[in-house]
Every structure is written in C-alpha cells, then in structure tokens.
Amino acid sequence: MRNEDAVDLLIGTRLAELRAQHGWSLGELAERSGVSRSTLSRAERAETSPTAALLNRLCHVYGRTMSQLLSEVEAAPAPLVRAADQQVWEDRASGFARRSVSPPHTGLRGELVEGRLTPGADIAYDRPPVPGLEQHLWLLKGALEVTVGDQAHRLDAGDCLRMRVTGATRFRCAGAGEARYVLAVVRP
C-alpha cells in the first residue's frame, strides 16, 4: 500500500468516527456540509482521496483546522518534529501539497504548515475551518494571489500576508513556477 493510500484510509476512518461521535447520518452531514452523501461515503471508505476543499468543509462542520484533523490520524505529537516525520498530504487534482511542519499540539494554539502550489493551481475555500482563525502566510518562492473575502493580495517571494479568516479565501499560483509558502496558523 502506498503511503498516500494509507493516509487516505486513516483520514476516512477518522471522518467516519467524527460523524458517529456527533450521531449524524450521512444525510445529516451532507446537509450541514453541503457535500453530497455519495462523496462523503466514498471519502469515509477511502475510495477516493479527499480534496482540500472537501476537508475544509468537513473541518468547518466539526470545528477543527485541517492540521488538527490530519494530526488526529497520527500518533501523539512530539515536541521535536523531524523533517522525515512531517506528514505530507496532497490534493493531486488541484496541484496542492501540504506539509505539517509543526502539527497541532496539546496546550499550543499555533502550528506551521508548508504549502506548495503547482503553476496554475487555484484552491478556493468557501469558509474557514474555524471562524476567526489567525494566519500569517510567508511566501518563500514564486508568486501567489490570495483573496480574503473580496480583497485580493498579490504576493512575491519574501512577502508576508497577515489575516484573520472569517469568510471565503482563495489561493492561486500566480506565476510560471511553483509557489511555496509557510503558513503560521493560530487558533482563536
């Protein structure tokens, strides 16, 4: 089994556990998330790799950040996270890769994420996973257009965008090469 398939299986199992903990049917979760029952079912059974947009919608419903959800499928977090142990998740369809550099940890509100978008990648989130989430995006390489609500920001290498996320966001690789960034996430 490929590592990506194992991660999808763990994510699917955790999504099914969360739904069961809330006592929701697939239909109820579909109504709350705006995601079809069939898509939810396929994600829970790991028949398909969930997209970033799908996970974002589910994180919103469950009141978690994406990093929190992904960290829940790992062993207990350690204070030192070696590069080789940092979990990488890919949404191949949209050209997005996400490395959990400093995953959520009990007693800490912040985390670090490395994001990579291939040329032309365009990811839109209709809502934050947790309303009021504070984010600091530091672009290391390439060009990135980030839209927060209805305000677009163009970032070039070295630029930093600080934001409190309360609504829709969009990340678009705005250059001919890959965009690589560090995202500091602080839960409210």
The gist of it:
By secondary structure, the chain is α+β, with helices and mostly antiparallel strands. It has helices at residues 3-22, 26-33, 37-44, 52-62, 66-71; strands spanning 88-91, 96-102, 110-117, 122-125, 133-141, 143-148, 151-156, 160-165, 169-173, 179-186. The longest helix is centred in the N-terminal third of the chain and has 20 residues, at 3-22.
Main sheet characteristics: 6 strands, antiparallel
Please tally the β strands and state the result: 10
Estimate the helix proportion, in percent. Answer: 25-40%
* Annotation field: number of helices: 5
Elements, N to C (H/E): HHHHHEEEEEEEEEE
Widest sheet, order of strands: 1-2-3-10-5-8
Radius of gyration: 16 Å
Strand content: 25-35%
User: Structural class, judged by helices and strands?
Assistant: alpha+beta
Kindly, what is the distance between the CA atoms of the first and last residues, rounded to a whole number of angstroms? 38 Å
* Rough outline: globular
Poorly predicted tracts of residues: none
Report the mean per-residue pLDDT as an integer: 90
Explain this structure.
Helix content is 28%, strand content 34%. With 188 residues, it is of the alpha+beta class. The protein has a 6-stranded antiparallel β-sheet with strand order 1-2-3-10-5-8, with no helix packed on it. The protein has a 4-stranded antiparallel β-sheet with strand order 4-9-6-7. The model has no long low-confidence stretch (mean pLDDT 90).
